[in-house]
Amino acid sequence: MGTPVATATSWRSGWTYKWTKTRVVLLALVGIAAGAYVYRFGFGLAETTNLSDRWPWGLWIWQVLGGVALTGAGFSTALYVHFAGRDEWKSIERAAFMTSLLGYLMVICVYPPELGRWFNFWRPAVFWGYHSALFEVYWCISLYTLVQVVKFGHIFVERVYMPRLGKVVDKAYAPLLVFGIVLPTLHHSSLGSLYVVAKGLLDPLWWSMLIPVFFLLSALFLGPAMVVVVLYLMGRGKREKLPMPQLSGLVRVSGWLMFVYLVLKFADLGARDQFGHLFDGSAQSIAWLVEIGLCAIVPMIVYLSKRLRENPVNLFTASVLVVLGVAFNRINVVLTGMAPSSGGVRYFPSWAELAVTIGIFAGGTLAYLFVAENFPILPKFAKAQAAAVVAEAEAVAAEAVAAPAMASGGVSTEPSSTEPEAVAGEGSAGA
Amino acid sequence: MNDGARPEKGLDRPADPSRRALLKGVGLAAGAAGLSSVLPLGATRALASEEELAKKHAEDPGLLIDVSKCVGCGSCAAACKLKNKLESREDQPFIGPKAKLASSNYTVLRQVKVGSAANPKTRFVKDQCLHCMEPACAAACFAKALTKTPGGPVRYDASMCVGCRYCMLACPFHIPTYEWERVVLPRVSKCNLCEDRVTKGEPTACASACSYGAITFGKRAELLKEAHSRIAKVPAVYHPHVYGETEAGGGSVFYLADASFEQLGFRDNAPDKPIPAIAETLSRPVPYVAVGGLALLSGIYALRKRRGTEEGED
C-alpha cells in the first residue's frame, strides 16, 4: 500500500484551525501553565516548587529526560529510512519528525523556570565545562533543535511559497540528515550519563554504567511507538487511516531493539547481583517490575508477533504501553530511584510544577494539530497537500508576474468545511 | 523527507543486494558504536592514580576534625557565619539535633545520639564541604562555576552559574545547597574553605574559633599522618578509619571519631573511586562516536545519492 493520491482540490489553500472542545480545554491548560510560569518568575523556586536541598531535581528534569525520550521518533525513523535502506517507510517520516521537533521545543520551554539563573544559559557555550555530561546534552540539544527547525523549512516551503528559503534549506539537506542522527544519538545517551554520578544514590535497579546505552536504546524503540500513537489518534483509530504496512515494519524493528534492551537489562542486573533486590517487595522493585514487565515485555511480544501487531487496536495498546513505560522509566530514574537516598525528605511536585508540565504538553499537542492540519506531514494526505500547494504557488507566481511584490504567507480567514481527517478519508477511498 | 508528488521509489523496488550491504554496514557501525561505549568500562583511567593524586595535593590546605574532642559549643559554625556574612535563620539552625547544611549554613554542628540504648552518648559532627581532590561537583558543572582551585579549595563562582543544580545531584556527600527562596539570582551555597585566608597560610575561621583542639588546620599529607598516628596511639577509642581519606577519591577535610561513621550519619557507601573518573569512562568515547558516526552516515548518504536512492529534497 502506497501513499494514497487524493485530488488536489481536497486541500484548502487558507490556514485553518478548528476549535473543538478538547482543544479549548488544552488551551485553558496552556493558560494555567502561563500563569504558573509568571508565578515562578515573580516568587522564586521555594514558593512555587517543592524542590529542596535533598531534591534538587524534580518533575521539570523528568520532563527534560522524558520529553527528549519521546522525541526518539524523529531520528529513529530518519535512521531507518535514509541509512538502513527502508525507503518504503518514507511516508511516515514527517509525522515522526514533527513529534520530535515539537518535543524539543517543549523541552526548551521548561528550561527557564527550571534554571535558577536561566539568563546565564549562554555561558556554557563560551566557558566549556566539557567534562560534564550536561555539557554534551546542552550542545547536542541546542544544535539538534536548530537542525530540526531548519529541516522544518522543507515542509514550510511546500506550504508557503518562499523560493529563496527553499533553496537554502535544499542546500542544507544532506548535512541536516547526517547531523540529525549523530546529535540525538549523542545526547540521548548523555542524558543517561547524567545519572552515572549518582552511584550509590540512585537505586541499583536503575543505576548502571550502561545507563547511557539504555537511554539511547529506549529512545530508539520508543520512536515507532510514538508514531503509532500519534497517527492512531490523528486518524481516530480507523484502520484505513493507518499506514499499517509501514507501522508494522517499524514496530518490528522496535520489538527487536526491545529484546536487546531487555537482555542487556537483565544481564546488567545479574552482573551487579541485584536479582535479590528485584523481588524484595520494595516500592522500587515493584516500579521496576511494572516498568519492565508490563511496559516492555508485553509490548515486545505484540511487536514481534505478526498476527498481533497487524491488529490496529493491539498495535495502539502496545505502543501506549511503550510510551508510558519509557516515561515511567525516566520517572523512576529521577524520582522513585532517588527516594531511598533522600534522607527521608519527600518530594511530590507542587501545583505550579504540574501546571507547567501539563500545560507544555497541552501546548505541544495543539501545535502538532495545527501543523498536521496546515502542513503536508501526515502520510495519507501529504501528497494532496503538496500538490495543492504547488498549484497555489504557481498561481501566486503567475500573479506575481502581473503585479510583483506579493508572496503568499498571510493568514487567510477563509472558512473550511472539511476537517483534514475527512480529507484523509477521501484520500484513502480514492486509493 | 517526503518527495512531493513523485511516486515512492522504495515501495516497489525489489530488495537488492546493495541494500543488504547497507544494512550490514549500519549494523556493523551500530555494533562498533555500542562496543566503544562499553569497552572503556574495564579500561584503566588515564587520569592520575591514587598515589599521584595524593602527591599532587600533599600541600593543599585542609582540616582534621576530631569528633571525639568536640564539646559541641558551636563557635566554629558561628565563626563561619561571621566570616562569610551569612544570616542567622530560625528555620535553618546551625547547631543542635536539627542542624543541617542550608543556604545560610556553610557548615553546621550537628548533634547525634550514638552508642547503645543502655549507654547512649551525644556526639557533634561538623558537616561541611570535603574539598575533594577530584570533585564531582566541579566535573558536573557545565559552566565552570565550580572549580578545584590550584590552591586546594573547591570554589563556587555565582557569576558563572546557570542554576541547573547538577552539582547538588553529583555531590556524593549532599554538600551544596541552594538559595531556594531567592527570587532573582539564587546561588549555590557551600563552604569555600576560607580561600582568602588559607591561600595566605592562615587557618580557616572555624579552625581558629575552636579552642578544644577538635579542628586542626594544616597541609593535607601532614593531617593524614596526624590522623593515623592518633588512631595508632589510642586504638581503643578511635574508630579505625579516617573519613575523607578515600571517599570519592579522597578530600582535604578528614574526620576522626570514637563511633562508627555510619552511626554519626555519614554516608558509608560513597564510592572509593573519584566520581569524575567514573563519569569519564562514559564521556571518553563520545568524540569517536561523533566523528565515526558523521563519517559513516556521510558515506552511506553519498552512496545512496550516487545510486539515486536518496533523491534529496526538491
Explain what you see:
The complex is a heterodimer of chains A (431) and B (314). Chain A is mainly alpha-helical and 431 residues long. In chain A, 69% of the residues lie in helices and 0% in strands. Chain A has helices spanning 21-48, 59-70, 72-83, 93-114, 123-126, 133-159, 163-171, 173-193, 211-234, 244-271, 275-278, 283-304, 306-309, 312-334, 351-374, 382-402, 420-430. In chain A, helix 2 packs antiparallel against helix 4, helix 2 runs antiparallel to helix 14 (312-334) and helix 6 packs antiparallel against helix 8 (173-193). Chain A starts with 20 loop residues before the first helix and ends with a helix. Residues 1-11 and 404-431 of chain A have low confidence and may be disordered. Chain B has helices spanning 9-12, 17-38, 50-56, 75-83, 136-140, 166-170, 195-198, 205-209, 220-233, 275-283, 286-307; strands at residues 61-66, 95-96, 108-115, 120-127, 146-148, 154-156, 177-178, 188-189, 215-219, 253-256. With 314 residues, chain B is of the alpha/beta class. Chain B has eleven helices and ten strands. In chain B, helix 2 runs antiparallel to helix 11. The longest helix of chain B is centred in the N-terminal third of the chain and has 22 residues, at 17-38. Residues 1-15 and 37-45 of chain B have low confidence and may be disordered. Chain B starts with 8 loop residues before the first helix and ends in a 7-residue tail after the last helix. Chain B has a three-stranded mixed beta sheet. Chain B is 34% helix and 14% strand. Chains A and B meet through helix 1, helix 3, helix 4, helix 6 and helix 8 of A and helix 1, helix 2, helix 5, helix 6 and strand 7 of B.
Mean pLDDT of chain B: 86
**How many alpha or pi helices of chain B?**
11
Compute the separation of the termini of chain B in Å.
10 Å
Outline the biggest β-sheet of chain B: 3 strands, mixed
Low-confidence stretches of chain A: 1-11, 404-431
Characterize the overall form of chain B: elongated
- Give the averaged pLDDT of chain A, no decimals: 85
How much strand of chain A?
under 5%
**Which percent range fits the helix content of chain B?**
25-40%
DSSP, total strands of chain A: 0
Distance between the termini of chain A: 9 Å
Beta-strand content of chain B: 5-15%
Largest sheet entry of chain A? none
Structural class of chain A: mainly alpha
Series of H and E elements of chain A: HHHHHHHHHHHHHHHHH
Instruction: Tell me the structural class of chain B.
Output: alpha/beta
Shape summary of chain A: globular
Instruction: Give me the Rg of chain A, rounded.
Output: 23 Å
